[in-house]
Amino acid sequence: MSLSALLFCLLLAAMVAFVIGFWRAKRLSPDNPRAVHSRPGYHGGYLALWTALPAILVLLVWSAVEPRFIQAEVESNLPAQVLEGSEGQIGLAMGVVRSVATGLERLTPAEVAAAKASPKEAQRLFESKGVVIATPPNAVVIASAEELNNIRHLSRLAKTAVAAFLAIFGFIFAFRKLSPNLRARNRVEQVVILALMAASSVAIMTTVGIVLSVLFESVEFFKHVSIIDFLTGTIWDPRFASAGDAGGQGQFGLLPLMWGTLYISIVALVVAVPIGLLAAIYMSEYAHPKVRATVKPALEMLAGIPTIVYGFFAVVTVGPFLNFVGSEIGLVIQPTSVLTAGIVMGIMIIPFVSSLSDDIISAIPNALREGSYGLGATQSETIKRVVLPAALPGIVGAILLAASRAIGETMIVVLAAGIAANLTLNPAESVTTITVKIVSQLTGDLEFNTPQTLVAFALGFTLFILTLGLNVYALYIVRKYREQYE
Amino acid sequence: MVDFSIEPGALNSSLAAPALPTGQPVDYKITARNVSVFYGEKQALFSVGIDIPDRSVMAFIGPSGCGKSTFLRCFNRMNDTIASARVKGEILVQGKNIYGPDVDPVQVRARVGMVFQKPNPFPKTIFENVAYGPRIHGLAKSKGDLEEIVVKSLQRAGLFNEVKDRLDGEGTGLSGGQQQRLCIARAIAVSPEVILMDEPCSALDPIATAKIEELIDELRENYCIVIVTHNMQQAARVSQRTAFFHLGYLVEEDTTDQIFMNPKDKRTQDYITGRFG
Ligand SMILES: Nc1ncnc2c1ncn2[C@@H]1O[C@H](COP(=O)(O)OP(=O)(O)O)[C@@H](O)[C@H]1O
Ligand SMILES: [Mg+2]
């Protein structure tokens, strides 16, 4: 049976085991259900877990390591002249063998015989079954493929047998343990906790994996370009070395990109912080609960708009509009500029500021407001002098989180910021950002071995450090602030 | 203006207040007539009337939920901050109806200070906590003025000696009892005529409680104080008059001695002897 069919059967078996366990537990002490340590559902779960879990785990591990073993086995039987070739050639040969193996599965015995007789015929037959092979497969290749199929077949049989054995054995083992004293609940909950731990470690391991892979590629880049030049360089000019062009590898100065990133983020914050904060004050202090219940989700919906759509908005509406306004008042505002990207990005991060600040302001204990009202303060005095100062650390945290969003934002700046790596103070000119350059360095069909492509990882790592630092700091502030009121 | 209609179980206080020396006109700081409070549809207070003399302590006692806090919060229009609350009737503070059409609740609260159940100092320095009220009302002409008000208020609240070296320390860093005295100093700093206290000691330990009670006794010389308390001994210790509430009605109001030694109503008797509540 195939892996998915096996898993399906095991799940079915688990369900049956659950019902049996449930039923059995009910009968353990029919007169006095309290004499049974665990509720029937836990007995059912206990039986189901013992039935399915060991088999599933073994199956998964088996399926994960199986291809390597089979590959090694088939590879060792390849003709000597292939094995003498480079790693790439062996890989190529194995690829052909695998395709042929797939093709063979789809042929009738008569066709198999025909295929073995003539490589050309074999190629034609495979193609008619939807398997395209570059070179006509000779007898040696077909033999290897047959071997591959045989091993696979055997492995599958063995898997089925092992799974069946484990399921039956697990069931019998657990069934005999069912008794009023069995701590079924504790056992089942242990498994549940393990599952929860596994789920949370997936996220952490992934993060660690991503960081490590980016880090290694960055290290690779710094073998080509010195880290000092990268961090302090003011010129970004990563010439793509065309074939035969030995004239250097260009310049990889981070500063223009860093400046563009920060400049646009600052403009975004200048837009988002006042609007978001005022909206938060309105929602938490003045709005009727019903109004708040609609306005808040509506604002949060802004955060759900795909950023590429904001990008369109920037290019199609905001850019031309600013350009027009600029020409009316005698300023040259380029359609892609710091202003365009910053304003649109600011709109994008308004909900981050407003929603979080609203939560924080709402969390200020009402006792503080009453204390202020009790002294004859008006509502606006209370907000300005008591509520906002008390909420300030939390609001700063919210702003930092929004800033880290802005710094890592890609699509808006790709469309609206421009691609020229300028070091300029003029917000009407276009600049470029780290994210834009990562995109442009990696677009196309590339191999990751030149500084021109590897630099993307160094940029990514820089960005990661920047946003991670901001996030950690922001969360630290927000948490410290929370503790104050708990 | 005096309303003689008597609600079931409510004893009109103006008829049963023989405690003060007769012959002289009685100086009532607060006069409430026919005060009813609703939270949405639910009525929490039923046509309550009371007279509260100046320079004395009036205690509100009664089982939980009987409307003591609700009534207390009428005196500084604090109920206005609750959207669902509606107040009917009239309350005169120094002869002026604070529920009159031309009255701004914010001004009322500057005249009638309040101390809450849980100490609620602002997350500011001790100095700034006390200076808060004077600042928003512009009571101090100069920095020196402000400092004087703060120091005086802290002194009156009996806190100055304990905090004089750390006026710029956080108010929230004080102990519970100190925080409550800081809140009292904060209230005193705007020179109110009345101080309302809603179970000011319920979150404090016995020693801190004793200090606050002592303080209340001193403040009585200058202010009209209304205190809600769950603690009968406290009412007996600090107050001159006591009002007993039950299920939203004012059952009985009299001198504290009278209420505790010789209550007229069966429900008051039951309550102070601990039979319910
Ligand atoms: N904000 C409010 N909204 C609705 N009902 C309230 C509110 N505050 C108090 N109440 C109700 O009013 C009644 C009196 O409450 P309260 O004055 O707090 O009683 P006490 O202070 O004597 O314990 C209670 O039944 C209470 O449930
Ligand atoms: Mg109360």
Automatic annotation (TrEMBL), chain A:
GO cellular component: plasma membrane
Keywords: Cell inner membrane, Cell membrane, Membrane, Phosphate transport, Transmembrane, Transmembrane helix, Transport
Signal peptide start and end residues: none
GO MF annotation, one: phosphate transmembrane transporter activity
Bilayer-spanning residue ranges: 45-65, 157-179, 191-216, 262-282, 302-325, 331-353, 386-407, 454-478
InterPro entries on file: MetI-like, MetI-like_sf, Phosphate_PstC, PstC_N
Domain ABC transmembrane type-1: 258-474
Location, primary (coarse class): membrane
Classification via CDD domains: TM_PBP2
Xref: PROSITE patterns: ABC_TM1 (PS50928)
BP GO terms, sorted: phosphate ion transport
Membrane topology category: Multi-pass membrane protein
Localisation per UniProt entry: Cell inner membrane; Cell membrane
NCBIfam families in UniProt: phosphate_pstC
Family membership noted in the UniProt record: Belongs to the binding-protein-dependent transport system permease family. CysTW subfamily.
Protein's job: Part of the binding-protein-dependent transport system for phosphate; probably responsible for the translocation of the substrate across the membrane.
Record's protein name: Phosphate transport system permease protein
Native source species: Rhodomicrobium udaipurense
Automatic annotation (TrEMBL), chain B:
Pfam families referenced in this protein's UniProt entry, alphabetically: ABC_tran
CC terms in the record's Gene Ontology section: membrane
Keywords, comma-separated and alphabetical: ATP-binding, Nucleotide-binding, Phosphate transport, Transport
Single GO molecular function: ATP hydrolysis activity
Membership in a protein family: Belongs to the ABC transporter superfamily.
PANTHER family the record matches: ABC TRANSPORTER I FAMILY MEMBER 17
UniProt protein name: Phosphate ABC transporter ATP-binding protein
Organism whose genome encodes this protein: Rhodomicrobium udaipurense
